[in-house]
Amino acid sequence: MDSNDDTSNTIRSVLVRLGGIPRRLWRDLLSVYYTNTPVWRWLKSGTLVFFGFFLWVATSLLYSFQSEWGWLTYVMAYGFVLILWGPLTHMVVVPLAIRLRRTANHPVARAFSRHASKVNLSVFLLVVIVLGAVPIGPMMLDVTGFVGGDGSPDVSADVDCETDDQLVTCLVETDDRVDHVVVLSGNRELDRADGSPPFTLEFDRADAEEVVGQKQFTVELRDGDGDTLRRYVQTVLKA
Q1: What is the rounded CA–CA span in Å between residue 19 and residue 13?
Q2: Which domains can be identified in the chain, with CATH numbers?
Q3: Where does the chain cross the membrane (predicted)?
């Protein structure tokens, strides 16, 4: 019996210690979150800006090749918003919440100081969800031009697309290294323009694939061998 009791006590002690690990980690995380010295504020803000930028660019690169993965826009939105929200949180929200906890007398101010972190996180997630569902232009980083088929990032173009009723017209101004230009949506070629620049392409907006609530298409610059020199992902604008 004594041996069994010792074994049970040992197991119980181990489980208690293991169960305490998440609580200690959470307390340590909160301690870092609320550390408010100038050095820590800059360190936390810089780390979040770096992480957000890396996540935004990496996801944009992946999305340029896998545009059918609609969920990537939410990851992209998370990184994009974090670039601004990280410094806002640790330079403004956290110091304000700490100051109000010490000095606020009004019930509303005291309630805000207690729930500032929850409110801040809730608003952050709401913005991420909205931008993930309805991506805005600045968030949709065009990185495809730097990963063309033959690794020629120096070839560039001015792509100007307009929508008139149901017809989308694109004017592509580039140099003579481009042999022809095509418009793709999904795996379909919607139009092709050969000859000399500027190139004009037209297609029915209904033929463009819908990605996360927006119709998108890709303009590709190609050389004489059919290799891609540069890609431009475009969104069909409302007429």
Answers
A1: 10
A2: 36-139 (no CATH), 157-236 (2.60.40.10)
A3: 48-65, 71-98, 119-141
Strand (E) or helix (H) holding 86: helix 72-88
> At a CB cut-off of 8 Å and minimum separation 6, what does 147 contact?
61, 64
Nearest to 63 by CA among 214, 178, 172, 188: 214
CA distance 121 to 129: 12
3-state secondary structure of 225: coil
pTM of structure: 0.56
- Distance between CA atoms of 190 and 100, rounded to whole angstroms? 59
Residue 151 burial class via C-beta count within 10 angstroms: exposed 0-12, middle 13-18, buried 19 and up = exposed
DSSP per position, 182-210: EEEETTEEEEEEESSSSEEEEEEGGGSEE
Each residue's pLDDT, cut to its tens digit, for the chain (239 residues) gives: 455 555 665 666 666 666 666 777 767 666 666 677 788 888 888 888 999 999 998 888 887 766 667 788 899 999 999 999 988 888 888 888 777 777 767 777 677 667 777 888 889 999 999 888 887 777 876 655 444 444 444 677 888 888 887 888 899 998 888 889 999 887 788 999 998 888 999 998 888 887 666 778 888 888 888 888 888 888 776 65
Closest C-alpha to 186, from 44, 98, 70, 68:
68
CB 77 within 8 A of CB 131: yes
